[in-house]
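Tip: read the tokens left to right.
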């Protein structure tokens, strides 16, 4: 998919795992899709979501606060996909509401934090094609 800053570029939120691991994964996803990487804390509560792609590195506690306050800001609420990097030992407490929010929207995919990047890209691209109604095998 590797597109540069246009409407076809994905809007992805990365949640879970520890901070450095999540940040590194968000960096690699942003580089792969050629979109900016942002920290969730830097996302302004603008009235409209960005129309171009991005990858947001989101700490579970911050997203939990957004959802507890009635929902995340538009840039996070309108994400095409939420990538949840699941940890083996608990840790989902603070993120529970955020995870349920994206799950209810049908845009949640979960992975072990150590899954290879190539596997992650394949699943993300399949989920994005399905979400956009693109037939399997077609290029979005």
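Filled-in amino acids:
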């Amino acid at each position: 998919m590797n597109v540069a800053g246009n409407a076809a570029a994905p809007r992805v939120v990365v949640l879970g795992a520890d901070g450095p691991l999540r940040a590194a994964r968000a960096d690699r996803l942003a580089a792969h899709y050629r979109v900016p990487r942002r920290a969730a804390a830097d996302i302004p509560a603008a009235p409209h979501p960005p129309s171009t792609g991005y990858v947001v590195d989101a700490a579970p506690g911050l997203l939990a606060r957004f959802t507890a306050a009635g929902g995340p800001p538009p840039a996070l609420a309108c994400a095409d996909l939420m990538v949840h990097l699941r940890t083996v030992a608990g840790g989902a407490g603070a993120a529970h509401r955020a995870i349920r929010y994206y799950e209810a929207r049908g845009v949640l995919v979960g992975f072990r934090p150590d899954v290879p990047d190539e596997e992650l890209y394949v699943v993300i691209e399949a989920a994005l094609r399905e979400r956009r109604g693109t037939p399997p095998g077609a290029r979005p």
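Helices lie at 19-33, 60-68, 74-77, 96-105, 117-132. Confidence is low (pLDDT under 50) at residues 1-7, 136-140.
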